[in-house]
């Protein structure tokens, strides 16, 4: 089982001229945009900070949250990149990180200067409630603020001469594809590759546009074998399934669990059965709710969560459970009705998506959802 750390050990002593930039490098740079480079990497594109120096400064500041597994993995990634010759000649610029509660936007990006151009990396969802809300907004909005921000960012980053590569993980992958499609046409012509790592797709109205179609031939999506996020919404670009460690499901969204070879990924022919079931379930669920219904449910639940005074999903889970439950119970009658209806539709979609064998047990346990939301065992509680 070889991962990104093994890749740096294998290829870290070879510069970009010896071993050209590849898709594993793009995944590493996608993760690099999650690093808090605030006050370290300049926000503009005129100056730049050597990548190893920037990494040392972040490590010295103890800026990375080590309370999470991914935070500890990010720290290890920087430590390896500091001394690896492969990254000595690279510089960082254009660091930007924005949280806007009013517009419900979470956006961050970083530009890595390469020997013959640049790689623009967009950050995915960072765990803030507003970041998750913006993700859910994609289910009923053609365009969200972070996507428009990504286009403006790329148009500015194009000040760096040479070819352009775009990459991102999770929502960052979606932003990379969107920016590549809708940037200025003269900039689009300089883009040689767009890499979406387990990021969601788009509404059908977006993928049908000529600008989107023009970039498809240079775009590829990579998803782990038990992908959840990367299967959401519509994808038209080709995709590669990557073998990954862990128990499956959402845990494999963590790119540090993806398996690599010396110059690429450990590829599989298709995603797991569970990933296919989730894909069918979500698409069926969404098709049975119109955009207005989805918007009302998502806005209502977001209002309930923000009523806990928490800023992140972790804070809601750790100290806001009762407040969140109370807020949900306090939703207006229509939103409560729509939310319950959405849960029932999700249950019905799951039944239609599952193979026959496990249906009986599941139906016995969850049949109350089909009867207006009343649990048949509740009277005996």
Can you put this structure into words, describing what you see?
The chain has helices at residues 4-11, 23-32, 51-61, 69-83, 129-137, 145-157, 171-182, 185-188, 204-207, 210-215, 273-287, 291-306, 313-319, 321-329, 333-353, 359-366; strands spanning 49-50, 91-100, 105-114, 117-122, 163-169, 191-197, 219-224, 239-242, 267-268. The chain has 381 residues and is of the alpha/beta class. It folds into 2 domains: 4-275, Rossmann fold (3-Layer(aba) Sandwich), CATH 3.40.50; 288-363, no CATH class. Strands 1-2-3-4-5-6-7-8-9 form a 9-stranded mixed β-sheet, with helices on both faces.
DSSP helical segment count: 16
Subunit organisation of the chains: single chain
Shape: globular
Q: Largest sheet, order of strands side by side?
A: 1-2-3-4-5-6-7-8-9
Keyword list:
nine-stranded mixed sheet; globular; single chain; 14% strand; 44% helix; 16 helices; 9 strands; 2 domains; alpha/beta; 381 residues; Rossmann fold
Write the layout of secondary structure elements.
Layout: H1 4-11, H2 23-32, E1 49-50, H3 51-61, H4 69-83, E2 91-100, E3 105-114, E4 117-122, H5 129-137, H6 145-157, E5 163-169, H7 171-182, H8 185-188, E6 191-197, H9 204-207, H10 210-215, E7 219-224, E8 239-242, E9 267-268, H11 273-287, H12 291-306, H13 313-319, H14 321-329, H15 333-353, H16 359-366
In short:
This protein has 381 residues and is α/β, with parallel strands linked by helices.
